[in-house]
Amino acid sequence: MHKVNTGQTNDNTFRNGILVLLAVVALIVLVLNWRQRRKTAGPPDNIGRLGRQLGRLVRFPFGSRLVLKWVAHSTQTPFASLLLSSALFDKSVESWVSQPTFAALRHWGKDRLVLLRANLFDPPALPAQAAVPADPADSCVSPQT
Questions:
Q1: 132 domain residue, yes or no
Q2: Which of 23, 51, 71, 82 has the fewest CB neighbours in a 10 Å radius?
């Protein structure tokens, strides 16, 4: 090591090995710390994190997540709020569409957001169920007299 420090030799394999070993240990510590934080994570205390978690629960049509984030940024509205409130969603989308820049892209995005609105706020139709009698006594077979 003394020869390397004084410049008597150009063989830096020992120094490079120590640096690589240090980098590997640091990477392992970072990965373990990240995994532990994810395991013990509490509820989100940040509106951005809440938006990400809510966004994972929603099925977005193609391109609509990016467009909705653009709407949220353009209208200074939190992304999570747009996913939760239909009135705020409609107001923000109308405000965003009325802006003049990128009009063609905004028109395409509005069509995507109409599909997303149906997924978010309009409940899906339930499959047709068999007719259920209103009175449970009607469903019983009465004994023949």
A1: no
A2: 23
